[in-house]
Design goal:
The protein is mainly α. Helix content is 51%, strand content 5%. A two-stranded parallel ribbon has the order 1-2. The radius of gyration is 22 Å and the shape is elongated.
Length: 171
């Protein structure tokens, strides 16, 4: 707080149905109140929607990234999507009083008003060369090295699956 100033430090409150959050975030409010800092209403976002498709995609990517078997989604996993204000309010009211939630949203708007963000869509997508198939092959190889630095757990199975996926994309 001293380094940044009270007006530049915020606590955050959120709730995804995780029992530890129901304990921790009311305590965050108490600490913020004691220290004289504001708190904002946030939400962890791991997927855009809470559709079954997005949920399965998240679980598959998590399994690939951490090289584990497919882990069935928990009830908390289903809450890690981009929520609108009403959905965040409904989640928070399960663990916090209404007055606290209102203050959190007011502070969230304050933070939003202080930000200046520009999304440059013109440079967002990679530029394709004369040989897009070669570009895809290169990107896949780079991705393999990043996601699996020690190689695939089962080279034959993963390489066969990868060939099938590339074929699907290219056809």
């Amino acid at each position: 707080i001293t380094a940044f100033g009270k007006e530049n430090v915020y606590g955050e409150v959120q709730y995804h149905g995780i029992k530890e959050e129901a304990v921790c975030f009311p305590l965050v409010v108490k600490v913020c109140d004691k220290c004289g800092i504001k708190y904002i209403a946030t939400n962890d976002v791991h997927m855009l929607t809470n559709s079954e498709e997005d949920l399965v995609r998240r679980c598959v990517l998590r399994s690939m990234r951490f090289q584990t078997e497919f882990i069935m989604p928990s009830s908390a996993d289903k809450e890690l999507y981009l929520k609108d204000t009403k959905e965040r309010y409904e989640a928070l009211k399960q663990i916090l009083p209404d007055t606290v939630i209102v203050k959190a949203f007011q502070s969230t708007i304050e933070v939003f008003d202080r930000c200046s963000v520009e999304f440059r869509t013109s440079e967002h997508y990679p530029v394709a060369s004369e040989n897009p198939a070669k570009d895809l092959e290169r990107l896949v190889e780079e991705g393999k090295k990043w996601r699996f630095p020690n190689g695939f757990p089962d080279e034959k199975v993963y390489n066969e699956r990868l060939k099938k996926e590339i074929y699907t994309i290219e056809s």
